[in-house]
Every structure is written in structure tokens, then in C-alpha cells.
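Service request form, structural biology core

Requester: graduate student, group of Dr. S.
Request type: structure prediction, single chain
Budget code: on file
Notes: please return the result as C-alpha cells.

Sequence provided:
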Amino acid sequence: MHWIDGTSYEGQWTNGVQNGKGKLAMTDGTLKVGIFKDNLIVEEHHSEVSPYAVKILGSSDSSK
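Core staff response, request fulfilled:
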């Protein structure tokens, strides 16, 4: 599932609600992997920020 703001969820659903194992990718590059219940992550197995998030968010290169 992809939302208009760029957030996406891949995983299990129950009656249109995130329930079970899943991955939530946010627009800032954060990836949350774990168990979801009623659209909330209740058991986080893994979370990280992509190294590409800095470039996407427009961080300046101090070497220039």
C-alpha cells in the first residue's frame, strides 16, 4: 500500500487494517519492520534510516 505522501506499507492486513508482520517505509528514509496491530507497530524487530535519506532531504555537502 502506498500513500500520497510517499509512505508505504508491505505486509499483512485484516479488514483493511495493518495487522501482523509488516514493513513501513517512511518518507524520511526510516524503515520499520515488525508486528503491527490496528495500524500501529507493537513489536519492532528492526528500524533504520536509509543512508540515502540525507541526500533526499537535501543535506548540504560541507566539502564544497
